[in-house]
Design a protein that fits this description.
seven-stranded mixed β-sheet, single chain, 3 domains, binds flavin-adenine dinucleotide, 21 helices
Length: 564
């Protein structure tokens, strides 16, 4: 049997980040990935080599924001290992049915000037909105960059600037209560408090809902971060696609001597005497882990699918039921469409400018349009009669993603995992069939063509993946693209459950990382970094605490907000 210090289940970007930190700390790490390609939801693939050779696609993540809230890039020296980020500016374009449009630049002032063309009041309010949420982001960065129950780590991450952000939000007792009140409101409540104009409210609602729930969902006002982060620290894409981030991480891990194996589907975590000691993969091969097994897949999949019930029950008799019933899943997943195009999109009804194509493009006609797009999913209905969507034309920023002069489109359409009216049919009984996913894709493309009429005749080939196929490809539980919903009751020290929230589990030497742990889904690498930190603190309590104290001083000095 091959023996390592640490075995990591899954080579998503968080598994790779965690491996890189542990390997750098002197541990001998093995990463086991079920697919033949590394990166999980952070890959770039030639999805249609026959129909569209030379076109490269990001089947999942494209726009990177959260990774700039931490220090993973600097600490792992990812730029030295091949990563290059291209920043978007403008950052968002949202055409409105009445001919107005929202064009957000990286600069808040320029964005306000765009808004002022239609509403002076909303332009002024926009700068207040950004300022408020900017302080909020500054105050939560220290929390994101620490294990959520490690008070010392969290406090150590606060520098002067972040304390100022925090105090400007808290102010006196009434301001503190008002902040709590804001946290309890929905994105729509918060957006209505600031703005009048639909052309502005709809894209803000659309971006807030990227955190996996309808914009009317209470206690989700912090979804405002999704727009505000686009101003600072900014929104970027790796040159060559999201897979370039994975490649850089793989380079770090391998350069430190780490071992990464593909086509290794972990089927069982081996437990001996209450302690994780290794894993078994499909085909029966076993790998021993002397110091720890770390899961890049979420707690539900880990404990309910990869472990003997007796091992789990022995460690915590309530855990399986709590994972099964306490964790909320709102049934929202993604139907993903990738297009190879002969020519760039043109937004003719909105005074087309090529700069519209650089950032995220939102089709969000009204707040109600966005609301329906998400609440239908919760009810198991496909909101395809009038689709709302998030799209990107990656080749506008990075022409290397397609043959010269050609383009690609990346379209994310929120759709239910289980379709209520088709229960029991289709892939895994979800209701999704090839015919249905293509019908839905037709509707989505038709809607987009209202805005960009040249789309229909410029499509060379298309690739459509249903929520059920996404779940099969990456193993996502019920197609959940963040492993677990990012609703407030499942964030911070509640993610995935309070008893599992600090990356440790009731089984000795078994750890959790990945999107299903704090601070959650998206490209950030923070769950991987925080988990490595907890692992090292457990193994070397004194030396690691001293190192962390030194690192936190260094990283706060260098952090984005500390420098600004
Ligand atoms: C369509 C889509 C679009 C998205 N767009 C964005 C975006 O623009 N910006 C953004 O920030 N985020 C986006 N996200 C979310 C983001 O991609 C994910 O939250 C993030 O990549 C998760 O990373 P991870 O490393 O935690 O997990 P994963 O990427 O899920 O990695 C887990 C790995 O484990 C492997 N695995 C699973 N089971 C086993 C097993 N039994 N044995 C071995 N290996 C196993 C999987 O194959 C996978 O490689 C998107 C997600 C999707 C699905």
């Amino acid at each position: 049997m091959e023996v390592y210090d640490v075995v990591i289940i899954g080579a998503g970007h968080n598994g790779l980040v965690c491996a890189a930190y542990l390997q750098k700390a002197g541990y001998n790490v093995l990463l086991l990935e079920k697919r033949s390609i590394l990166g999980g939801a952070s890959t770039t693939e030639e999805l249609m080599p026959q129909a569209a050779p030379g076109f490269k696609f990001n089947p999942c993540a494209i726009d990177h924001l959260f990774i700039f809230l931490g220090s993973v890039i600097q600490e792992l020296e990812l730029y030295k290992y091949g990563l290059e980020y291209l920043f978007c500016d403008p950052v968002v374009f949202c055409p409105h049915p009445d001919g107005k449009y929202f064009l957000a630049h990286k600069s808040v002032e320029k964005t306000c000037a765009e808004i002022a063309r239609y509403s002076q009041r909303d332009a002024q309010k926009y700068s207040e909105y950004v300022k408020y949420w900017h302080h909020f982001i500054g105050s939560v960065i220290p929390y994101f960059n620490a294990p959520p129950k490690s008070i010392v780590d969290i406090i150590g991450n606060y520098d002067l600037k972040k304390l100022q952000d925090l105090f400007s939000l808290l102010g006196g007792p009434n301001e503190t209560l008002d902040l709590l009140r804001t946290m309890l409101t929905s994105p729509i409540d918060n957006i209505n408090e600031y703005f009048d104009s639909e052309f502005l409210k709809a894209p803000l609602a659309r971006l807030s809902a990227e955190l996996s729930s309808p914009p009317s969902q209470k206690a989700m006002s912090f979804g405002a971060m999704m727009m505000v982060m686009r101003h600072h620290p900014g929104q970027a894409r790796p040159r060559g696609g999201t897979g370039a981030l994975t490649e850089a991480l793989v380079n770090v891990v391998k350069s430190q001597g780490g071992v990464i194996l593909t086509d290794q589907h972990v089927e069982k975590v081996l437990v001996d005497n209450g302690q994780a000691v290794g894993v078994r993969v499909a085909g029966g091969k076993e790998y021993r882990a002397n110091q720890g097994v770390i899961s890049n897949i979420d707690a539900k999949r880990l404990f309910l699918q990869l472990m003997d019930t007796s091992d789990v029950d022995h460690a915590d008799p309530n855990l399986r039921e709590r994972l099964d019933r306490r964790i909320v899943d709102n049934n929202e997943s993604i139907l993903k469409i990738d297009l190879a195009l002969n020519e760039p999109l043109r937004f003719e009804h909105h005074e087309h400018k090529d700069e519209y194509l650089i950032g995220s493009i939102l089709i969000a006609d009204s707040v109600n349009h966005v609301e329906k797009a998400h609440s239908d999913c919760v009810q198991g209905k496909i909101p395809d009669d009038d689709p709302s969507m998030y799209l990107v034309m990656p080749t506008a920023l990075d022409p290397s993603m397609a043959p010269t002069g050609k383009h690609t489109a990346w379209i994310e359409f929120f759709a239910p995992y289980n379709i209520t009216d088709a229960a029991g049919t289709g892939l895994k009984g979800t209701g999704w069939t090839d015919e249905l996913k293509n019908q839905v894709a037709d509707q989505v493309i038709d809607k987009l063509a209202h805005y960009s009429p040249n789309l229909q005749h410029s499509i060379i080939a298309r690739h459509v993946e249903s929520p059920a196929e996404l779940a099969e490809r990456l193993g996502f539980y019920r197609g959940n693209y963040y492993h677990l919903d990012m609703t407030l009751e499942q964030m911070l020290c509640f993610r995935p459950l309070p008893e599992l929230a600090n990356y440790k589990t009731p089984i000795d030497n078994l750890y959790l990382t990945g999107a299903g742990t704090h601070p959650g889904g998206a490209i950030s690498g923070l769950p991987g970094r925080n988990c490595a930190r907890v692992f090292l603190q457990e193994k070397h309590p004194i030396s690691q605490t001293l190192k962390d104290a030194r690192d936190s001083i260094k990283s706060t000095v260098e952090s984005v907000f500390g420098n600004s």
